[in-house]
Amino acid sequence: MSYYLAMALLSMHPEKTLSLTAPPLAFSKVHGLGNDFILVTEENLCRHLVSQGLALAASDSAMKSGGAAHAHTEPVTASLLPALKSILSNLAVFLCDRRRGIGGDGLIVAVRSSYLAEDHSAQGPAVALAALVDSYSRERDGVSALAAPFSWIYVNSDGSYSSMCGNGLRTLALFMARQGWLKEYLPCGTDSGAMSAAASVFQVRCADYPVHICIRSIDGDSTGSGANRAVVSTRLARPLFSAADIPLDLSDRGSVESKCEFVAAPITLKSGKVKATAVSMGNPHCVIFERQEAGSLPWFEYALDMQGGLPDNTLAGLPAANSNSPTLRALSEEIQSSSLFPQGANVEWVKILSPEKVRVYVVERGCGPTLACASGAAAVVAAGVREGLLKRQCCVILPGGELAVSYLDGGMQEQIELTGPAEFVFDGVVSVHSHLFSEPGRALLIPAQSSANQGLQE
């Protein structure tokens, strides 16, 4: 059954016609070094989607599949999973809008494995949510994700999905602590003030691999909604440099070998050449170090474009130091749209202050210039070590603040640990218009019947 047919079923039940506005959706706003996110629990999300009528679609599908006992069968997930992804894309675009919505760099859905284990046969959104998490990678570098107590869904502000966001993971940890989900992972006897002892490590299952997280300290009520700031360490999987893993398209360079690497290699842009190293941290990165070499584009002269402040006003909007030169954002977007990166890339511009300290400006795919990017910080250190420019312990200075990065020397593991803050901003509720639950990718309510024969665009 197609997504459109599932939604068309709603029109067959006038007593369950969608209202223009469903009950408000509860959320929290949390930031990590200015990289800000809107977070919701899986329970609140599913309850909200059910109020929009999606439970009916699942129920009708279940009857056609042989009853509620078969609600987890393929016909249900085949229609509701793409519907859920499209809805969350629309929801992220709406909520992250800094003028018409809440404002943020991304939408995060926090998911408990215990919630997914409950019987949700009558609720289509929960069935689709479980199917989405079940599609995540089950193992990476010998570490199983199946026992992870938590998982997440991360959507960029432009509605695109990403498997990794280091700052987002830190905000997720603080959010889950505020929900009271992490009591067994926090030291006892610390109802207020900062903890001095390290907490237990827990896993969060992400699309590409499980991430180990440890809350190092927390201010406020560490077991509930009073927690307002935390210092969190996240241990990401080892960086990958092969073209297939990033991914890279090197066909224009005469190479089709998937194991080829792109390290300190030239990229020709409209205004000049740069040397870059491509690396995956679960998402693709293009790391460009400042170089005083003949023929190299002097991009470091344009760094004034990226100094602090709000993205709309400073990171993206100021003219370059030389009015005849492009901005770092324009250079980044040229790289992101090139055939070299078929899935786009986060672009990091790195000024080396010492082998143990760098200043970094980031233009993320799906978000644009941001105050911080933790996976980008990890990629910078990984690339710097690979090029012989940086040490494994490095302080990465971003416009929003500093991250401590440790590139662990562990043989095949070689994981990267990042430590930095997460800060609570505010809680709230938001009304969501029903047009977000119509045809995927559109902001207008289009009758489902007239779209029944169209293909689903994700």
Topology:
Elements lengths: L2 H6 L16 E8 L2 E7 H10 L2 H11 L9 H23 L9 E7 H4 L7 H11 L4 E2 L2 E2 L5 E7 L9 H13 L22 E5 L4 E10 L9 E8 L28 E5 L2 E9 L3 E6 L21 H5 L12 H9 L9 E9 L2 E8 L3 E3 L3 H14 L5 E6 L2 E7 L8 E15 L28
Parallel strand pairs: 2-3, 6-7, 12-13, 14-16
Antiparallel strand pairs: 1-2, 1-18, 3-6, 4-5, 7-8, 8-9, 9-18, 10-11, 11-12, 13-14, 14-15, 16-17, 17-18
Helix pairs in contact: 2-6, 4-6
Can you walk me through this structure?
The chain is α+β, with helices and mostly antiparallel strands and 458 residues long. It has two domains: 3-237 and 429-451, Diaminopimelate Epimerase, Chain A, domain 1, CATH 3.10.310.10; 251-414, Diaminopimelate Epimerase, Chain A, domain 1. 23% of the residues lie in helices and 27% in strands. It has ten helices and 18 strands. The strands form two sheets. An eight-stranded mixed beta barrel has the order 1-2-3-6-7-8-9-18, surrounded by four helices. Strands 4-5 form a two-stranded antiparallel sheet. Strand 10 and strand 11 form a beta hairpin. The longest helix has 23 residues, at 74-96. The two termini are 17 Å apart. The model is unreliable at 1-21, 58-73, 188-198, 307-323 and 439-458 (pLDDT under 50).
